[in-house]
Design goal:
The structure is a homohexamer. By secondary structure, chain A is an alpha+beta fold. Chain A has helices at about 40-45, 55-65, 70, 115-130; strands spanning about 25-35, 80-95, 95-110, 140, 145-150, 155-160. The longest helix of chain A has 19 residues, at about 115-130. Chains A, B, C, D, E, F: It catalyses: (8S)-3',8-cyclo-7,8-dihydroguanosine 5'-triphosphate = cyclic pyranopterin phosphate + diphosphate.
Chain lengths: ~160, ~160, ~160, ~160, ~160, ~160
């Protein structure tokens, strides 16, 4: 079994050496969500509430966060992000509405782009919370996880069992 | 009902004016979590795995993220954070282990410190993911939400119903 | 006549001491613009081009830049920005179209908020350039200047003569 | 005609995918300016005012801004800047003086370096404003535009008509 | 004896709570240095080497670092820096030359400004190293320490014994 | 003799052009230290003081600083850091204790990684100061210098004479 890769021989964290890893095209897709009440849902999606703007701000925040990932996550390597795309969908859950957030990040680099996709998805959800919290502080950011990655030595990964 | 507070009269986002809000002591507590398999759990907690270091890195990341919240979240006001404390607990869920993350952030400022607590909790969980992802990419970051806030004009908030 | 205020007694730049200046409510409004061709104008404003999104991104960029001003401008003091609002207007100039950008920034601080308004206006214009440059690299960012400030010891300022 | 390249199929902004673009040597030169009164001009240029220091600070600010461009401009890709050079010239306009700012930025990357040159030029001008605003808040930052670019698939660009 | 103040009751680091500390005027002065060979000394100080520019860049770097201290130092509180001044002196040591760096930082805040002064002094020295390292990689950054602080509950501090 | 490489033909600083330098594997090791009294030494190292945590925070700070070097040091090129490792040792000096800090940084880039190693070492020492300053403000950060570099056109460097 592989070992923890962020520790040096003093047992302390280090940024692992990837100097000799090959550059390759890599992609990762992460999922997050935020559940809001009907009033917020209507505010975000109706024409009267200037449709799209909460999501537009959240999306910009997510893309900028992807670029800041190695600044935010201590042992994360800086990689040259070559693309970020964020998709939104809505799903009704009883009387509430869940905004589904899917972020795909790409790089041509020596290490994977999973953290960039996950960070962007999280910041996207946090931004929706920020922009709607005057209406309801009870919004819940849903489970956040990797759904797919490709490229790199460890090969492809796809979550095959649903997250409960 | 209160309205969306981040839109200007052109229907676009703005940073709302808090110039005339009073400074007061404010506090917010947010919850997040990450579920890991037994092998990662043992690695993080056993003496052989240099107990506490993954959590130590995650905690530093969370505290630094609290200070970067207004840089990350577009419409968030910069506030002078006066304290951040992060607590960890473990909970076994069948064969897996859930790291419970609780972040309390404080400020003496003109607006609330909810986003700082939530951002710190999210970045804390993301950092654990980053440090353990060589072992398992299937870890899931759990629901992230506000559990308590105090101070400010809108008064105190405590989540009274559990999040399912 | 007042002297240059950013030099120390060795003739080098310093960040001037404002420790004993009183906090007061301050506001500043800055103007910038960018001139684009008809095709870009239509792209930005027509329904088919998803009206508002270029401007939405530009606006988020401007607001975030206001918060980063003291990081960007070396001798600029960090101040607690309490509000930022960005307004857009269009003006036809012969066959081209000029996007007028007006940014108002506010603070309750010990020094003025002019640089924040000017920086936000500049970054707003730069972002429009970035998002449209695939269509035309010849866009010109127009003159950028302060139109109004209030608050602080030096009192109010309004540009009374038009900028040619 | 080429289309807007920053929108995804939901009509929202994304960071376009450049994973498969070739790296090449690229260069871009941008122009900005700031017009100041005679007193400020003399202050900046005379020996008594420690010649060069306002410009030295502005230049450092411009170079640092070039490196921060992808942090400032939301859809801008991070690229490895390989060189930045800033040149200053003075031009008398009636009783005022115009500081001409020319920034050349270089990269060996997968996308152009125009935004880096433009951002550096803007921040350079903003910094001069900041350092002289105690003397006159009426300074005007002049038109800012690309004068030349080379490298990349779209080839070379040179502005051939003067900007009025 | 006072205890370590950055640990929570789980024995992990936290950002200590200063919500109830009074704001007061505070000042701190830190010292650093860098020893260079005669060739570099002459390059920095002679007219032919464009006197002052290495120091001008170092000084801007130091001032900007003071403003980034709470971003760099994990448990450091963000404070509103109200002034930074950096002084340089030269001292000959046998065949070498030592650049003495003295940084005074000020704030009107709830906690001290020592870290800002120390960080600025360090970054100042690092910048001189960076700008001269093509000539000699053997330069040594000297001891870095606090020489004075005033303000705050713990009162004034002055180093009374020389650092060997 | 080589000349100062950060000046343009106007005698002002620039970021030197490395567009045509070859990428190669590079490594640099820097040394710093901080001298603390026995009480702080015992606090950091004893089991009762949660051994390792001050060092864990310092180490995270150092690694994050390595990634921020080109943001901190004005003329420093952004390079893709591929690994950072920080080692600590203790040395008793009469009644005091010196924490020896050794940082090795690696890159596969077009310019050296010396500044990253030096910056990380400095920030590491500054962080220890920050976390212990409640006990003693008289701690002294020791000499900071390059001990080794490899890779690049200028070849290897090793400090062969001890720093006094």
């Amino acid at each position: 079994m592989s070992e923890f890769t962020h520790f040096n021989d003093q047992g302390r964290a280090k940024m692992v050496d990837i100097t000799n890893k090959q550059e390759s095209n890599r992609s990762a897709t992460a999922h997050s969500s935020i559940t809001v009440n009907e009033s917020i849902y209507k505010g975000i999606t109706s024409n009267q509430m200037k449709k799209g703007d909460v999501l537009a701000v959240a999306q910009v925040a997510g893309i900028m966060a992807a670029k800041q990932t190695s600044t935010m996550i201590p042992m994360c390597h800086p990689i040259p992000i070559s693309g970020v795309d964020i998709q939104f969908d809505w799903k009704q859950i009883k009387e509430n509405y869940q905004l589904l957030i899917s972020v795909t990040a790409k790089t041509k680099g020596s290490t994977g782009v999973e953290m960039e996709a996950l960070s962007a998805a999280s910041v996207c959800a946090l931004t929706v919370y920020d922009m709607c919290k005057a209406l309801d502080k009870g919004m819940v950011i849903g489970q956040t996880y990797l759904t797919h990655k490709s490229g790199g030595k460890t090969g492809d990964y796809s979550r095959d069992e649903p997250v409960e």
